[in-house]
Amino acid sequence: MIRRLFAGLVLASLAATAHAAFTLDQLMGALAQHPGGRAKFVEKRTLAVLDRPLIATGEMTYTPPDRLEKRTLTPKRETLVLDHDQVSIERDKRTLTINLASRPEALAFVDSIRSTLAGNRAALEKNYALQLTGSADKWVLTLSPTAQAIAAILQRITISGSADQIHTIDYLLADGDRSELTIEPLGPR
Amino acid sequence: MNARAWRPLLLWLLAMLAGAAVAWHSRFSADMSFFLPARPTVEQQVLVDQLKEGAVSRLLMLAIEGGSAGERATLSRALRQHLAARSDFASVQNGEAGSEGAARDFLLAHRYQLSPAVTPARFSVDGLRAAIANSIDLLASPAGLMLKPYLTRDPTGELVELLGGLNAGAQPDVVDGVWASHDGERALLLAQTRALGSDTDGQERAIAEVRAQFAAAVRDTGLGRLRLELSGPGLFAVKARATIRDEVTRLSLISLTAIVAVLVFVYRSPRLVLLGLLPVASGALAGVVVVSLAYGTVFGITVGFGSALIGEAVDYGIYYFVQSGRRGLASWRRRFWPTVRLGVLTSVFGFGALVFSGFPGLAQLGLYALTGVVTAALVTRFVLPPLAGERIDVAVPERAGAVLAAGLRRMHALRWPVIGLALAAGAYLVAQRDTLWLPDLSVLSTVSAEDAARDARLRADIAAPDARYLAVVTAPDREAVLQAAERAGARLEPLVADGVIGGYDSPARFLPSRAAQAARRASLPPADTLRPRLQAALADLPLSADKLAPFIADVEAARRQPALDHHDLEGSGLALAVDSLLLHGPRGWSALLPLRPAGTGDGADIPVARVRAALAGSGVLLVDMKGEFDALYGDYLHQAVVLSAAGFVAIAGLLLVALRSPRRLAGVLLPLVLAVMLVIAALHLAGERLHLLHLVGMLLIVAVGSNYALFFDGSALDSATLMSMAVAATTTVIGFGTLGLSSVPVLHAIGVTVGPGALLALLLSAVFARRAGPA
């Protein structure tokens, strides 16, 4: 989310390299520079067991390097906070706190988005094979799980964006269910 | 020696033999009971039960240090495997995956008997629609990933409900698949012993087993660089016992050696030294016997008090041998025995006041010392003379007598400086009166600061329950107590919803009463009824009824499921959770419902008054363990103040009767009161943390010190008397002073108060003596 083009300098540097091959390091570098912020999201889940997709909307806030807050507003209010290795979900006045370190596959799953936001290539490559296509203006990053435990749940994650801005995150699960997250940055708070 | 003289000797011998037999069979204990109330209130009884038998009292926290995270995890797994194979442990956990799977399968299989959400309304069309719509919402959330595999079996989301209750509390961090400390530097395990917390032998065996199995696990894995750290109530109990055992031996030895050295120096006769120790040995034995007969158990700390008793009881023999030397037995009996007897009586009144304490340890100390002193005095009076014979020759060096007498004359000049000093001490004590006494029972604990810090660190890392707040219900049988727990839960539920408390545990969560289970089963509609309802409920939802055949089958099966029983829980890891909250004692069954505060982090409290109000009239007892501890200590302290005051008044009354003159009484008491003030002010100034045993020590200064003050009352003192007093005071100071070396706070406090206090009592009595010097 929250990928605002923030400084003319960064913009210029990206433009300068636009015609050269866009590398993973360039993308990660640009993402790592991002100062964080707020974005709207729409999440569409397509589940085999259900007759039609589920749509959820809300806001996300990213504070580099490792805090991500996802506030779902419809259809039901729910707040998910990912802070270091701790994920807490607040729903119906109840808070469920999970220590992700105790569930490495869940951590890898949740961490994919955070590591991408942080531009942390090393963290991503621990669990995924990365493939980048397109240019700085319009790139697509594909994460394919390398660990068996993650591959059992997840086929791949496809992230698309332009410059340091992420537009969509598409999770394709092992059982064919998928979840598409569309992100639209909001102005600073 | 004639027959009349032999009779007491024979009686004494028989009594000693009988006493030795009783002492041989006495039960000695070093457990918490020393500090636990003799006549507990209902709330205190909960506290006592928890400390002796509660689940928390059986927890041992283990930490593996050193090496890499991977090595620690490997060793943690190996150690768990080793320990789980031993019968000493009810459970051993280290966070390994797999244990949670068993619990989840159990909850899934029995969800319709376990879930409190199962009511007839839940299985109506509207209820089904609401529950299933909620589950579908949940699927849209990140939490839904966990639910998805179960949706067609459990569309109403009972499993999610039950899992929510399973891990409501905090969990330790996990590194490399096993529990680890927050900084990741230690792997953690939690073992629950089968032995009760009060079974120190059992705890000692379990701890030895942990160490042995750790060594075995190290051998298996070859990870010799890794170390084991251990803490828990059981370890504290075992260490406390070892400390007390060591100290009893060490202190008695120091005290005895020093006193024997003094006696050898003074008597210069091995025979007299041995005879002089006779009253001491008799007194110590009698003390153990009487305490054992009165209480059934003798506390180790009580025996540790013996080293003080040695110093006090040896005095009577000293008076007898030194004073009767030149004048003979008959003259001694006439002239000095009344004074010694009065001193014995003041000691008896002082120690006797403690016997009435509700603090069992204090009462035992009182009874032990009281018996010891009386026995020593009686043995001196009736047994020593026939054994010692008529001719006792203790040389009183003329020079020593002269030096003492000269010193005595000079001390007279000190009376105004002493009064000035005492006034300053008094003013200081008045100024400090609010902060003088520490209001915390933990000051009496034998746990060292280092061990306490390690325990706190492990406890924080492992997120071990501290179980401070407990709602307790009692009933005659298990079914009734589970029903009572469910009723209490119904009262607590609104408090959770309102955020007054964070949550609560209950044994009925995983083992509902048969009545509740039957009601839940009766809420489940037969398949033929459920099917059309489901059709109607799903009309507007993105889930079609034909996908929910597993749900209908499960509900149908659950209708025929037998009632869930305690043995069904075994193997799921949940039996432990239930057992630790369900106690079966001689007074029937109790269920404990630990409450969690709403806030997180340290110092999060529960508004006890609000919770109590919500539980009013339900028969549920709310116990704040820390509050109870504080109240308990407050009671002890208050009682100690009353008893000390009563003891002081009794001693003053006794002296008034014996001396028959308020002026003489004032003359005897003044130096004692000044000694008490000076000692307490000095201890506080020196940074000693004062608690109720120092308070009791104040009474004992008066009780013991009056023995010396009394000699200064009345006629002039000759060299022999002066020397006997100097020697007697020295042995008493050695006896009590030795206790000051103890690391057991109870003994240390009495030692540092009474040791200097007794010495000061003697010196101040000399300062204020009406007639100084030999006649």
From TrEMBL, chain A:
What Gene3D superfamilies has UniProt attached to this entry? Lipoprotein localisation LolA/LolB/LppX
> According to the UniProt entry, where is the signal peptide?
1-20
Ordered alphabetically, the record's keywords are:
Signal
Any Pfam family from its record, for instance, is: LolA_3
What InterPro entries does this protein map onto? LolA/LolB/LppX, OM_lipoprot_carrier_LolA-like
Name of the featured protein: LolA-related protein
TrEMBL record, chain B:
Entry-linked SUPFAM superfamilies:
Multidrug efflux transporter AcrB transmembrane domain (SSF82866)
**Which stretches make up the Membrane transport protein MMPL domain?**
171-391
Query: Out of the domains of life, which is the source?
Result: Bacteria
Q: So where does this one cross the membrane?
A: 248-267, 274-295, 301-322, 342-359, 636-658, 665-686, 692-710, 722-741, 747-769
**Pfam families this protein is in?**
MMPL
Q: Does the keyword section mention ATP-binding?
A: no
**Location in or out of the cell:** Cell membrane
**UniProt keyword annotations, A-Z:** Cell membrane, Membrane, Transmembrane, Transmembrane helix
How does the record classify its membrane topology?
Answer: Multi-pass membrane protein
**InterPro entries associated with the record:** MMPL_dom, Mycobact_MmpL
Q: Report what the protein is called.
A: MMPL family transporter
Q: Which organism is it from?
A: Thiobacillus sedimenti
